[in-house]
Amino acid sequence: MRIELDCVAPPIWRRFSVPSNVELDQLHSIVQAVMGWGDQHAHQWVSVHHSTSNGPDRYIAREVIERDGYQEDEFGEDEVRIDEAVTGVGDYVRYEYNVRARWSHTLFLEQIVEDQPMSAPSCLGGARACPPEDSGGPVGYREFLNAQASTGLFDPERFVLTVSNAAVTTSVALHRSPPVGSSLFEKFLRRLSVHSAPKLFAAVAKAELSGGYDNYFETMCEGATRQLLWLLNSARGGGIVLTASGSLPPDLGASARDELDWDSEWTDAAGGSDSQLAVLVEVAKTLRLVRKLRGTLILTRLGASVLAYEGELWRHIVMTMPLGKGELAQEAGRILFLTLAAGLSESERSEVMIEGLTALGWSTTDGTLLGDDDWMWMVRGPLLYLRMIGAIVSNPLDQHVSADPEWGRRFARMVLSK
Question: Which of 176, 191, 225 is the last residue of a domain?
């Protein structure tokens, strides 16, 4: 197939192959990927070969149908295959994106290859860059090009086949295993595009967010709650009396080593900010499970409540993650959980964190590029928690190889599915 953007000269076009049984909802994702759009606006297909008395048939997205219902000339794009929309060489169908901006594309069927195994969608060639997402349609795009001609910030002649194919591969994987519909993470993901954050979307494809939890459920629950339950039970009754300096008592460190199998190097300095105990208390306070009152660490009403009902702590943790107040903390936290769900290594995690936050428009206060210290500060709460429970584990031998346990990946997947 060949797709060309209408009313734009010189032409912006792509040539690509797709299996004949691809439905139009998946073809929409492939078109977005090969062209370079960000899937930020509504779309529809318009047939030139099929029509009713009201005019040409239109194939529309399922969410539009569920919201507005069908019209006489409308059909669900997930119910129509490409070989039903175009049946012979030379046939074509129109793809309209962002109707207000009047971006219209024409898709021509150029060749049918028969008697061969189905191959994955692939971009075969093309020319020129996709216009910026909100450049205002063909007329606005011409004005945009004239206005920025001297800046060199946008190259209208740029087209990289490998980049387009990487986007197609990710698009196909996401169609096979998409984020859970109507989840907060799905809404978050709509703010980005494959082309603005390719590594992040590749991680989404690896994360298999629609997958199950099978035999890992009990392991996830124990891993996520064991240390917190120990602290909450230790604070039952009258609470934990702190030292004069406000630190946890030394005998609590010995108890933690015995009952939680902690490394002594992390628990000996019980009152120090780097100790495992201090991290545990900080996490519990962030989760609103404990607080300090007159030199004593006591349970909050929520802390007492989660101890009273089996499974309540687990549910509270899942629903509260990612920890952190404000848009920045929440967005950074979701990307962190994505890197865990995808099984990324430490170096890959850093790349995806920086890419994703930059694509969302976050930067340092002085406008410089984000670094490791920046994103780690943004996700300090959830990162402390995930390291504390052993869901994120440093690999001292090779930072390019993940050492995170499988139950941690499943836990992150569950957090992202809510």
Answer: 176
Q: What is the number of other CB atoms lying within 10 angstroms of the CB of residue 153? A: 6
For residues 329 and 289, state if they share a domain.
Answer: no
Is residue 321 a contact partner of residue 159, using CB atoms and an 8 Å limit? no
Cis peptide before 10 (omega within 30 of 0): yes
In a domain, 8, yes or no: yes
| Number of domain units in the chain | 3
How far, in Å, CA of 90 to CA of 283, rounded? 63
CA–CA separation, 405 vs 164, rounded Å? 33
Indicate if 235 and 330 belong to the same structural domain.
Answer: no
Confidence category of residue 121, pLDDT binned at 50, 70, 90: very high
* CATH number of the CATH domain containing 163: 3.10.290.30
The 8-class DSSP code of residue 94 comes to: E
Which pLDDT tens digit goes with each residue over 255-304? 877 888 776 544 443 444 447 788 899 999 999 999 999 999 999 999 99
Interacting residues of 260 by C-beta distance below 8 A, sequence separation 6+: 226, 227, 230
**Burial track 73-99 (b if 16+ CB lie within 10 A, e otherwise):** bbbbbeebebbbbbeeeeebbbbbbbe
Q: Give me the residues paired with residue 106 across strands.
A: 4, 94
Nearby residues of 371 by Cβ (< 8 Å), 6 or more positions away: 354
| 43, 61 Cβ separation under 8 angstroms | yes
Amino acid at 46: V
Domain assignment of residue 346, given as a range: 321-416
pTM of the complete model: 0.80
Helix (H) or strand (E) holding 124: strand 122-127
Residue 296: enclosing H or E segment and its boundaries? strand 296-299
